[in-house]
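Troubleshooting: if your tokenizer reports a length mismatch, compare your output against this known-good record of 148 residues.
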Amino acid sequence: MTTKIPQCPSVQSTEPGAQAFAVVGGSVDKPEVRYLDRAVPVTPELRAMTAPLDPAEVFRISGPCAQSTACMHWDEPRRKCRLAIRTVRLAPVVVSRPPPCAIRRDCVWWNQEGTSACLRCPQVVTNDVLPNERVVTTANPLNIADAL
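Known-good structure output:
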């Protein structure tokens, strides 16, 4: 039996194993993602389709979770993703039920925070060019909101 590698739902497009699993839409003030039926690898062709933008401005990108101090959001002593914790604590719920998601079964956020993460996920944009104060606070790895 093959063990799936835990997937981070918010990686940069240049990470090894990066795959697009949703398309960013909505507006600058209120981003919203639409989930793909299946995740697709971030290839040179996909990069060309989004040029001159970074693919992470157009797609939600997942990839293997580092689950180590290689990631600024990883809390090694607790073996948890602090970004998932902050997202659940600081971001508002934007859907009433988890949307269909190609990576859910292997998603670190889902496996750690459950439905609470999925109810907030449709507003998350990895490379938000005009983030509001809440987004900046949530993404800041030095935010102590998750230390409680």
